[in-house]
Amino acid sequence: MNNNQIQQLRAIPIEDLASRLGLDVRHHKALCPFHNDHHASLSFNVRKNTYRCFVCDAHGDTIDTIDLVRHLLNKDFQQACLYLSDGSCEPQHSTPLSPGRGAGGEAHFDASRYAPFFDRPYLSPAARHFLFDQRRLDPRVIRWCRLTSWRDRTGTDWLQIPYYDRDGKLVGLQNRNLTPGGEPRFKFPKGSQCGIYNLPVLNKLEEGEALYIAEGCSDCWALLSAGHKAIAIPSATLLSQKDKDQLITLNSTLLTEFHMYPDRDLPGERLFLQLKELLPNLQHHHLPPDCKDYSDLYLQPHLNGY
To answer: How many Cβ atoms sit within 10 Å of the Cβ of residue 171?
Structure first.
C-alpha cells in the first residue's frame, strides 16, 4: 500500500469511523474504550482528524484513523490499513441516535450548507497552478466538475471537489490539500457520500459508448480532458447497492463498454479484479512502465495512444 492510499485512509472522518466501530460520538466526545470511563473523556479533533483521551492518555503515535483501528481492534498497522481499505469497518453494535444522525446512526450531509460554493466556483492561484500548470487539465472539465477552492484560518489552500448523484443532487464533497506534502491530504465533511465520482456523466452516454473508470478524481479529470467519458471509483468494497445497480444497468441497457487503466500497484490491480466481477466486460489497459497512473500518462502526450 503506497503513501497516497495510506493518506486516504487517514482522511476518513474519524468521528464517522468511531461511530461505525461502535462508539457513541456526541459533541466530539465518546466514552473511552481504553479504560472504565463514565464521563465521555475520549475527545475528537475534527480539524486534525485525531483522537485522544485526557484521562488515561490513550492515544497512539499518530492518533489518527489507522491508530484508532489498531488500538480498538488490537491489529497491527498493516492489518488496520487492510481493514479500512476493504470497507470492513461495519458497526459492531447499534448506537443511540444523536442530533444530525439518521435512523441507522449515520451522519447527515448538509448539502444546503455547501451547495452555494459550487454555484459560482472560485479557483485560487494555488488551485489554478495545481489544475492547469501541474496537471494541464482542460478548463472545460474543471467547469463541468464545478471545482472550487478555499483557504482555511491557518493559510492552507484547499481544492473543494463536489460529488453529485446522477440527478445532479449534491451528496458529498472532498477537500484536497494543495500544500505539497501537507497533512491531512484529504478531508471530508461529516456524512459525505463519496462513492462514485462524476455520476452525471452517465446521462450523456450513448448506446455502445465507452465509459472509463478511474481510481481517483485526478485520474478522472485527466481522462475527461483526454476526451473520454469517465467516472472514479476509489474502492469497489464501498460501493452501495444503488451504485452497483446503476453500472450493471448501463451494461444491459446501453451495452456500455467499460475500460480501466489500473494504477501500477497491487491495490490498482485488486480494484480492477473486484470491478471485473461486477462488470465482466471491463477491459484492462496497461500503463507504460514509467507511468504510475493515468494522470502520468496524460502528461506525456506522445504516449496517449499507448
So the answer is: 17
